[in-house]
Predict the structure.
Amino acid sequence: MTEGGRQHAPFVIRHPSSVVCRLSSVVCFSRGQAMVEFMVGLVVVLVLLAGLIQIGQLTHAHTRTMIAARATAGLLAMASNFPASEVASRISDWDPGDDLRRHTHDDAAMVTSNAVTLPGELFGQAHLERVPDAPANALATLSSSTNAAGDFFLVKGEASEEVTILPVIHRLVYAHSTLEVESDAWLVWTEGIY
């Protein structure tokens, strides 16, 4: 068809359903993508929420064990007879153990370094021998003591509790089903003065 030397393309009427199908496929595709993004985001948020709940449970267990350890140490401190004292080591550092991770249960205290000789060095620098009438108190004997906890009449209370690990944390972070929380508390024996 020509009109005044111009050529026009024939007018084609398209069926409206073909336009709707194309638009609906774009809408359907974007709805599916949004659903996948929502589910990925929801999984991440739920894992973070489970981690917060687990930290809360561990913190609560630590608080309970610390209260129990202090209560035990308080009872021992109030006893009329001094209980048998546990030997406390002078610790200078920690060996991370077989798992090579610090602050885990298999760590071992290193007491072979200057932690044992340090009190003797300090008292050597104090020159207590120059004080003619220095009393023989626990500070003066600390340099040669093998049980400083007994010299200072310290009593120890301890408590532990097992916390169940949430399944999602068990699968993703920690391989064991429980975690033991331990607490120690040291108090001075008061010889039942209260």
Summary: Residues 16-77 form the longest helix (62 residues). The helical segments are 16-77, 118-126, 138-141, 148-151, 167-172. The longest strand covers residues 154-164. The CA atoms of residues 69 and 158 lie 4 Å apart.
